[in-house]
Amino acid sequence: MKQSTARRLPTLGLRANAAQFALLVAVNALVGAMVGQQQTVLPLIAQSEFGLSGYTFVFTYVAAFGIAKATSNWFAGTLSDRYGRKPVLLAGWLFAIPVPLMLIAAPDWGWVIAANVLLGINQGLTWSTTVIMKIDLVGPARRGLAMGLNEAAGYGAVAISSLVAGGLAAEFGLRPAPFLLGIAYTALAILLSGAFVKDTRPHALLDAKLNPGRTPAAPSGTAGAPTNRQIFALTSFKEPALSSASMAGLVNNLNFGLSWGLFPLLFATADLSAGQIGMLFALYPGVWGIGQMFTGALSDRIGRKHLITAGMLTQAAALSVIALGHGVAAWSVGTVLLGAGTAMVYPTLLAAVGDVAHPSWRGRAVGVYRVWRDLGYAVGAIMGGIIADRLGLQAAVWMAAALSAAAALAVAGRMYETHLPPRAPAHEGDARATLPPHHAST
Q: Residue 94's pLDDT is what?
């Protein structure tokens, strides 16, 4: 009887949870694909069907998406810590159901904005939850690898879906063909999440129990775990590693938000076809997605800080190439570099947050980090739109390059290394494996 009970207990480690981990990778690919179906197409619809020429107005749908996603990230973290992960994941997919239907039927731009509010809620709830669930499953030893695989699946799917949607738009028109993809993605995700995904909160509780020496980064003089308000302050401003990650994440997604609204319009100035624009846009998340399969694991070996710094500098260089270039060849080089820099940063930032945050409030810390990171969509869209309207498209890209370089310098100066090699090697499936030392203030 005791052996049977032991077999039912959760175990930490990637190999021990391979089936559930792979299922969550597939679900997160569908999350990313929901974004990819519209990225290439919506800026073209704005110009050709609704006659929108002001960049600021065109970018409103990206801002709406970013604000909705950032806000729902907080609720995803808080609710998943309180009620479990799976209910939040399922709720997120319910918000996706009307999105492709609204984009197909949209009689004006207001419908597009409303659809992107719902899409932002879907993305915040589902993507945040799959991140938290993977961190729960793998334990401390393979956290970077887990985040690399998660983000590779999501952004690889963004690239593939963007490319397919661009091809459908070129062959069959801007509507409805590209958005039929979203209907299929949502139906499959609800089936997988409802029937096969298991809640991982017991794994987080096990992590906290097996690693009692890992204390919350609570403010000095505070007993016990920090409150929601304290977690927000720590992750946003006070704790050096958490707040540095939040700042770098915001700038990273500022670049993505800018590219989402601006790149198709910039590429269209060279009289490229919808298919060519789709290909160029797909290079960025494609390299980003594939690269994360390696950079996440690399951060487990060499640490987080220097990879984040180098990644932000690479993004600054890439944006400079895009601003200076013109035509498919130059822009291909720039988007590939931008994807590589983002791959270095994206899973590594999530792993760093997981290094510092205690399992008992990990969901909330991840949620706050993702609030700041995904506000970058809105900041990039609004700032990029205003600058593009007044100074031109290239000026908006130069702004993003300068901010990326500044973020790299800030991380280099303030962030400490959150992941150090464990004192003794441990098998990844061994639930007794100890956490690597960290420097979170206690």
A: 96
